Amino acid sequence: MPIFLDCDPGIDDAFAIMVLLGIKRLTLLGISTVGGNVPLELTSLNARRVLELCGRGEIPVAGGRPGPLQKTLVSAEEVHGRDGLGNISLPEPAAPEAKGGGISLLVDKILSVPRAILLATAPLTNVAVALAEHPEIRSHIQRIVWMGGSTSFGNVTPAAEYNAWADPEAARQVIRSGVPFVMVGLNVTHQVALDRATLAHYRALGNRVAATAAQMLDFYVTFHEQVAGTDRSPIHDAVAAVAAVYPASLRTAACAVDVETTGELTEGATVVDLRGLVAPERPIEVGMDVDAEFHLEVMRDALASFA
């Protein structure tokens, strides 16, 4: 199963990379990064740091767009730490960035296989640019699986999830592109939560990757304790990663979806027609429910697979 990842590591993106690398049924073609949770220079560095930690430094990584199509980037260091990885100070990677930039890497790797899954766990800036400038990749994308949006509530505003809010114009362009699209929003990712007992189990697995994951996620759990009063922390991007590999674990509904780009109170909101009032030309598969126990088992087994 060939998968290309576009991301903005970020703790949950980094954890998603670890999970993907621990699943044996897929091939990770490459990683493009975008400015998002932290600035571009850190997202690219963090992706390479995680790959090296996992012994997979040969997988190419390149940075794409530093910020949104129209608005100014607003990053989220308060959630992910100054370095984007919970301030755990992973070593510098030996492998350099791939030449040519993230958009070129995305396009080249997608075109290198007949059909690929494009997994996006970040603002959709890179994906929007790639689809607009290289329409030939559309027929090579089996589906885009995006961690973003929500059917109900936001996490950066009451109405908007971060990845949609950070670049709503890009999200609108990709959702309207006609490429098969699966939205894994907050309404789904909040059904799968890690807590301190989960982190203790990861440490007990006895390998460096799992121990590093627990150390990194400790910052994330602490943040949720402070803002939500609970150590149950949704691990958004890893949920989308597992759903991309095991689509039967996600129950979806085909809906009309669009993204608000100008609303004073609703910028970045994903407007989902759950009642079927609009007959879309190309419906979006919107995640509704997820097999949380299965997702947690896949994440645990993926970490356990490392020596």
**SSE topology string:** EHEHEHHEHEHHEHEHHEHEEEEH
The main sheet comes to: 8 strands, mixed
The helix content is: 25-40%
CATH topology: Inosine-uridine Nucleoside N-ribohydrolase, Chain A
Number of strands: 12
Roughly how many Å apart are the termini? 23 Å
The helix/strand class is alpha/beta
Low-confidence stretches: none
**Briefly, what CATH class?**
Alpha Beta
CATH architecture descriptor text: Alpha-Beta Complex
Rounded radius of gyration (Å): 18 Å
Query: Helix count, per DSSP?
Result: 12
Strand order of the largest sheet: 3-2-1-4-5-6-12-9
- Give the DSSP E fraction (strand runs of 2 or more residues): 15-25%
What global shape is seen?
globular
The average pLDDT is 97
Question: Which helices and strands occur, and which strands form pairs?
Answer:
Layout: E1 2-7, H1 11-22, E2 27-33, H2 40-53, E3 61-63, H3 77-80, H4 102-111, E4 116-120, H5 125-133, E5 141-147, H6 162-166, H7 168-175, E6 181-184, H8 186-189, E7 193-194, H9 196-204, H10 208-228, E8 233-234, H11 236-245, E9 250-255, E10 257-259, E11 270-272, E12 284-290, H12 292-304
Parallel strand pairs: 1-2, 1-4, 2-3, 4-5, 5-6, 6-12
Antiparallel strand pairs: 7-8, 9-12, 10-11
